[in-house]
Fold GyrI-like domain-containing protein.
Amino acid sequence: MMVDFKKTLDAYSARHNTFRTLVVPPLTYLMIDGHGDPNTASEYAGAIAALYPVAYALKFASKNNLERDYVVPPLEALWWAENMTSFTTERDKSEWNWTAMIMVPDWIDRPMFEAAMATAASKSNSDASSRVRLETLDEGLCVQTLHIGSYDDEASVLAELHDRYIPSSGLTMTGKHHEIYLSDARRVEPAKLRTILRQPVAHSAESASL
């Protein structure tokens, strides 16, 4: 039976117009880093093109060798900048740093990853493919919501999350802004894009002492 992690993992559950606090377990990802506007930087497109061949090589290896099939999870990304207002009021994408990611099941081990990397490299001339790595991300306590609409319309939601909801809940931001792209932007019109917006947090010192 094929596993679809979007349906089985609570971390992929979010509701529109609702901020939800949850504990995200450690998850393992294929990752590749970069910098710049994702709409114009060739580095971002190259990173995405490097991730998917490795992700599908792992899927087929799992199915054929382990008899464990699964749906390749959605594209995700971590985003950060020296000035975080570049995501909200300033909205300067050229300042963004990012890590593009695709989650892999916990039964995928390093030898499988290395074999998938070799398979992908044999079919690609891109230098980006060699920069894909396998790493576990432990975000822990997070707040997330489902955004419906274009990526450029996220700014007001993020401002509400960063500046109102998190402080008023006795929390502080601790990790990198995390987005999970549930829609394929090549096939879905911007107004209908579905994106989970996640922010790792911790209880503030003041709230923890109460």
Notes: The longest helix spans residues 42-66. The chain has a mean pLDDT of 91.
